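## tool: complex_structure
## caller: assistant
## args:
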Amino acid sequence: MLHKELKKILLAEDDPDLKIIIELALKTLGNYELKICSSGKEALEALNEFDPDLILTDVMMPCVDGPTLLKTVKNDPKYANLPVIFMTAKVQYHEVEEYLKMGALKVIVKPFSPVTLSSEIKQAWDDFQEGIINNS
Amino acid sequence: MKRSSIKKKFITTFLLIAILIFIVYSVTFYIFKQTLSEYEQLIKNADIANRIPSMYTVLIDDFKNYLVESNKEYEKFQNSITKIEELVSYIKNNTSSYHNNSIAQLEGISNQLKIIKIKTNNAIKYRREGNLEKANKEFYELSDLSDFLRENISQYISKELSYSVESREQIHKKSIILGLLSTFLIFFITILGLLYGIRLSQMTVNAILQISNRDILDEDIKKEYKEEELVHLNNQFVKLQKNIKESIKQLYESENRISSILNGMYDCVLTISENKIILSCNYAVENVFGYKSTELIGKNIEILIPDINKIFTNNSADKHIEFSGLRRDSSNFPLEIGFSKIEQNNEEIFILVIHDITQHKEVERMKSEFVSIVSHELRTPLTAIKGSLELMMCKDITELSETAYNLTNISYESCVRLISIINDILDIEKISAGKMNFNYEVLELSSIIKNTIIENSSLEKQYNIKFMINGNLPEFKVNVDKNRIIQVLTNLLSNAAKYSPTDNNVEITLFKHNDYIRTSVKNYGPPIDEDFKQQIFQKFTQADSSVTRKKGGTGLGLSICKNIIDCMNGNISFESNEKETVFYFDIPEYKQCYIKN
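## result:
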């Protein structure tokens, strides 16, 4: 079974500055197709239409936060296997552990390097794909 | 002034009585003995006198034989006379001078004996001359004289015997009188001594009673006692009483002060018995538990602290233990107990100082939250700043002039430093709150080291040094938190890189040291200052504050490393000399049976 290539990333981030930086990092440097949403709610609304390969989401957001977004996505049978990567400034060990337990593919700790962000996500994606192949 | 003690007085009195009794007895005995010896002498004299007539009869017979048979034992004959004379003289000498009649009688006897001697000599003389007639005449006169002699002696004896009867009666009388007198005297002296003793003890008792009943400032009482020792005793009592009153006053003041302090305290101070019954408590219980202090006396401490038994089973050296308190309104709150025990009347009494830590906990929680929020809030804009700067320096995004690039790089480096400071502060906060979590797993240490060196390879370029692994890293298993080990090693590598001379190696070695696995990082930089060695693992310390700017860092790194390694039951230390500086940490080697708490 061949690796599925990562193309479409759905970003949920409420900080406008970070949105710009991540856009530059993933769109310009990583050549990914990126849909930028300002909240979890917006991301959920865009989910069906955009049909992403991966969701990159901030943890703390108004209304629907990262964990809620993850739960909702995982509860939807259509997207149950959709990988979700968290970005957070809450870096305490138990917090990171908690997010991984929830089903997050990876936790990217803020501040991250935009230059290496795309490769970091790519690595996580590749590992994820590897896991799928091995399991099947 | 010489003071005689009561004891001395008692002894003197006793001795005096004893001496007086001895004198009375001695005098009585002497008088009695003298009378007795007089009586004995009388009897002896009479006895001797009684022997004289028979001796004389023998003498006359001898003399007669001499005259008739011309017996030549003349000397024996004369000796008998001399002996009789000596006996008479002895009696005379031993007869009391006041027995005049007897003495006169004896003198008569002596004179008669002299005449007898003369007559005897004459008779002997005539006998020798052969004139028997004259000799016989002398002899007959001698016989007549012997009758007188006998009569005189018997008279003397009868007189002396009458004296002896008198003397015996006197002895009888004297013995009765002296006996009575001495008995009376002894009785009298004893009574006198007894009375004096009673008087002395009464005076002492009175003095003590009066002193104890009267006011201490009443000086007149002293005048009643002329006895020096009583005055002295009185003074001592006054002093003693004064001291006791002063001590009681001080004790009262001190107790007042202590109870004011106790009642003014925010913390509850309770004493409980061995069976957990409250013996005393201060007013603070009202604020802390909602009970009045008087209500709690005699109650079991468990109504305030249900899990109090923990305190008796706690074996740790730390006597401050955290408990859950129960208020009157059934609400719970956290408290800390300072615990000690004392022994009173062979019973153990426990002293509990109960400190309500509700606020402290709240502050701790707020502090933790504050640090968490601040660090989070700082991280978000820092992410934007760092990200922007990094992208600005990325040639795929923008093209900067050299100056702009350099300035951007300075901003970027400062930003990285700021993030590192925030991370360190977060770690320190976690350590001080005891909330640093460890995710232990059994790992192979050499692979962690290799990966960490690779992750930190940017330092090689930055400081122009080279990380070099000494030999092949042996494989050792350890039970550690991987990320924390990486954190420690990163710190040591970063420090070594900072202080290493350029174009030099920083050497990493892994080897077994006793039961531990030692990871050491060596650089050939300048030695660590002697003064600084003592505080190298303390918070916010750097060899030189100017280093902070030159080399970066907060001075928290080694303090965090030490805490991490300590938590993993390891040990971190260093050796530094002119040639090289080695930092190392030891981690216990993992064994199958090794159980991590």
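## assistant note: Chain B touches chain A through 26 residues (CB under 8 Å). Chain B has 16 helices and twelve strands. Handing back to user.
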